[in-house]
Amino acid sequence: MSSKSQAMILLLILTIFSFTFTPSSSDSITIYWGQNTAEGTLKAACDTGLYEIVLLGFLDVFGEGRTPSLNFTGHCRGSSCITLESEINHCQNNVIEVYLSIGGPSGTYSLGSSDDAKNFADYLYTNFLTLPSQKKKKNQVGPLGDVTLNVPPELSIVFWGLPAAPDAAPGGGYIPPNDLISKVLPHIEETCSTHSCGGFMLWDRFHDIESNYSNQVKHWDEQSACRFVTQVSKASLGSVSTT
Ligand SMILES: *[C@@H]1O[C@H](CO)[C@@H](O)[C@H](O)[C@H]1NC(C)=O
Ligand SMILES: *[C@@H]1O[C@H](CO)[C@@H](O)[C@H](O)[C@H]1NC(C)=O
Question: What is the distance in A from the centroid of ligand 1 to the CA of 32?
Fold first, then answer.
């Protein structure tokens, strides 16, 4: 075997290795949960193994003197959401990050001043982001109990927000899984080579069950890795047979 083809095979192995094993966040799926009881429990959503991140929606009352309040429509509201504590722990123990989404379509919220914003930030930090030991020190039980929610590792991170079914976006914007994989993903991969990407962010768990969307896009990276490996193998076989 010539040294040229040996070098080619080494290159091939290195390339496959880096292509397949570099942790890439462009393929991870974030799902909104909390706006429809028919979507099932948070624990069940985490147990599907489809999602890397769950966004709890929503903390939909805050600012300008309002007492902040959770509203996971139908599942629980306000202080009754403490029942989610064990489910959040379950998700995090299975290496699924749990974020809190603030705002939403129907709440009552606004921030009136920078002091207002600071107070709200303090509220979020104390109730959802400090460690249980610090909460205990302050004798504080947050609306979600002792959980410490996750935060994105970087401040500027791109998530690709998508409706999980046509009726999740009555105004349009639904992209069928096949189109997503063949037409949109190449551009996403390009963007993610120079920006921090958080992957897909789907609205929402209910519509994902209905359409099986994330199941269909979940393994696109393996599919494209297979195509890539096949192409490189063909190319290197060609090169080996001609040297
Ligand atoms: C909770 O959210 C739902 C859906 O967004 C909304 O219809 C409902 O009015 C909210 N409940 C309260 C008490 O804000
Ligand atoms: C969902 O999609 C996956 C992957 O394409 C497929 O294996 C599975 O059978 C689908 N499930 C349903 C209920 O359609």
Answer: 16
